[in-house]
Write a structure and sequence with these properties.
The protein has 15 helices and eight strands. By secondary structure, the protein is mostly helical. Keywords: DNA integration, DNA recombination, DNA-binding.
Length: 411
């Protein structure tokens, strides 16, 4: 949490005037940034951070000082929206007036990557590096400005990706990254809203063409019934999949970082890394069995699952470890599917997709499912829907434990 205050420097100049400065405090560190005014100490109202009426130019100066303070608060809000744990140096750079309106698309992306790296969000940094390399692998103009990204340019970029084997899903990922960057640029005043190209260019047309990846409840039961004594090398993958499925599709990264301290009575309480949404999930019986099994291992790290084996790993090491374990997890899920007779492709993401699909099959509406999974974009479009309490979602999740109803056989 950062705090902002307009105040005076401790020492006066040789003329006996005190420089007016902006002081920002974050993480117990202080940054002092000079503002364009000086005044006599008797003309300064420290409590309100403004000039007294005794200063002959107090009206104009106070108006400018207020604008400076609002500008500083806006920058903090921008970092918050960008989910960047900014440094004081980053704040000062933006406050001192980097000419955002003249920043190129390439430099804008590079700055975003740097912010992610400084915040330890190496996964997000790598994602945008991929988009940067892909987009400017097609665009030769490294000085491209946001206003030059038109619907026509996006169509040509889409065609370029298709010639290189891109699928609808993969192309949609790149386009969503560019759309996010464009929205950030609008918010920072880099480009005007009327240049927004995604009104004419619709990313929604890139929806996948219908490969149903969700497992049915019966197929999930096949995985539950896998005999790990007979297939001990598949025990971990089975546990990871079922744990994710019965915790509303918890993703692998959040499972990896889940600690015993996240268990509060009959609930798992955690903050989702991707969206920063807070979750309080009822522990269903299959999850409890998995927790009981791993509790016996008594790891000194405090992590529930044996993925991160030390507490002092750096962000890059964590990302590398995640990649290695996730690759093995998906490889073992393929073996599980072959072993139990599931013909669909099973990956870590299928657990999340199956959770949503099977709740829908159990009769729950899209609104409660989207909230259960923390889909912020859907919540934004459905703000008129009533909010469901955690207890309602827990009751809905418990429906996954019920056996499927037998089909009626007509005479």
């Amino acid at each position: 949490m950062a705090t902002i205050k307009i105040t005076l420097k401790n020492k006066p100049t040789t003329e006996g005037l005190y420089p007016i400065v902006l002081r920002i405090i974050k993480d117990r560190k202080v940054k002092i940034i000079s503002l364009p005014f000086k005044c006599l100490k008797k003309d300064w109202d420290e409590a309100n951070g403004e000039l007294k009426k005794s200063d002959k130019n107090y009206r104009v100066r106070n108006r400018i000082l207020l604008q400076k303070k609002e500008e500083a608060l806006k920058i903090i809000d921008e970092f918050e929206l960008e989910k960047v744990d900014f440094t004081l140096a980053q704040f000062e750079k933006r406050f001192r007036g980097q000419k955002d309106k003249n920043i190129t698309v390439r430099d804008f992306i590079l700055e975003k990557i740097q912010n992610f790296e400084l915040a330890g969000r190496t996964g997000s940094a790598r994602t945008y590096e991929g988009t940067l390399n892909s987009f400017f692998g097609y665009i030769e103009n490294k000085q491209l400005m946001f206003r030059e990204i038109t619907p026509e340019l996006l169509e040509k970029y889409e065609n370029y990706l298709r010639t290189r084997g891109g699928t609808d899903g993969g192309i949609a990922v790149r386009m969503r990254d560019i759309r996010t960057l464009f929205n950030d640029a609008i918010r920072r005043g880099v480009v005007k809203k009327d240049a927004y190209p995604f009104i004419a260019y619709k990313i929604s047309k890139l929806k996948g063409k219908g490969i149903k990846r969700a497992l049915t409840r019966d197929e999930v039961l096949l995985i539950e019934n896998l005999n790990v004594e007979k297939h001990p090398h598949l025990r971990e993958a089975k546990n990871f999949f079922l744990f994710s499925y019965y915790t509303r599709g918890m993703n692998f990264y959040d499972m990896m970082k889940l600690k015993w301290s996240n268990i509060e009575g009959d609930y798992i309480v955690y903050t989702r890394s991707k969206t920063k949404g807070n979750f309080k999930i009822k522990i269903l019986e299959p999850v409890q069995q998995i927790l009981d099994e791993y509790r016996l291992e008594n790891r000194i790290t405090g992590y529930i699952f044996p993925i991160l084996l030390r507490n002092d790993l750096r962000p890059k090491q964590i990302e590398e470890r995640k990649g290695k374990k996730l690759k093995k997890f998906n490889k073992d899920l393929k073996l599980i599917a072959e072993t139990v007779g599931i013909t669909k492709k099973v990956t870590s993401y299928v657990a999340r997709h199956s959770f949503a699909t099977n709740l829908r099959e159990a009769g729950e509406g899209a609104d409660i499912i989207s909230q259960a999974m923390g889909h912020h974009d859907i919540q934004m479009t459905q703000t008129y829907l009533k909010a469901f309490e955690d207890e309602d979602i827990d009751k809905a999740s418990a429906k996954l434990l019920r056996e499927p109803e037998p089909e009626l056989i007509s005479a």
